[in-house]
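Annex B.
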Amino acid sequence: MAHNMRFNFDKSAFGRHESFGLRYGWLTKGFNAFQEDPSVFENEDATVILGVGKNMVKSIKNWLFSANLISREVNGICATDIGKLLFGKKGYDHYLENEGTIWLLHWLLATNAESSTVFYWFFNLFHRTEFKNDDILKSLEQFVESDLKANYSHNTLKQDIQILLRMYSHTRESGNNEHLKELDCPLSSLQLIAYYKDAKSYQSKIEKRDHIPLGIFGYALLDVFSAMNFKEIPLEKLIYNQDGYATIGSIFRLSENGFIYHVEKLMAAMPNVFEYSESSGLRQLYLLDEKISKYDLLKWHFDQ
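DUF4007 domain-containing protein: predicted structure tokens.
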């Protein structure tokens, strides 16, 4: 079962990472061990099997849930379809060697409101493009208190923010000379958040981002069409967060021009799948091929 891309204010999760951000190799290692033995994370030998400490075992399990590679079903915890396609025995990219896999993992994290709430909140609901640590923490605390009506400690929320920023940000030194830190997390390579060391501030800019792989952009589009169960969606709903659904433009930090650029490229590469129309001030995207699935787009991406 896919995760629900619409925010459920009654279901949220914070502080389950054991203070460890996602690291290279963890998803592959954790998913393979889970497929061998679904009870591996409760196993007394889990630290030996996974080669990490006890808290890291819990963290790996958390990241598998957060990235929607495993999920809780009626009959227990199961591997998801996307988990099997990426990291199964015949998976597309066991070792995260394809940039598209990193973009896809970002999409999976930022759309999974129930299991990775802080990622969903930041990429869908926090709209400031420049901020400091205190700004983002205060905003998250206000959201939790007023919208979720939940009670999470200041330290828990602070740690979640620190983990998110550490996982995504790369450092820019003064003089605008870019210096990429050696980070364990693959998501920093997407450059969705920049840290300006001298100003001690962050930027998450809205840009054209024409390097986002087309197949992954198409996967995200079909994910939204499926979640909304529509055959036509106004462009604004795909670019800006509305109705509580995860939003492509917000998650990929895409400008309107960038979004339309990707749509047009996708229409040229896959005729008769999508159609874009603009008339009387109404901009709509249509799904013409009802048989195509997001997994077809994934196969198309990895087969290229």
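The radius of gyration is 19 Å. Residues 174-183 have pLDDT under 50 and may be disordered. Further annotation is deferred to the next reporting cycle.
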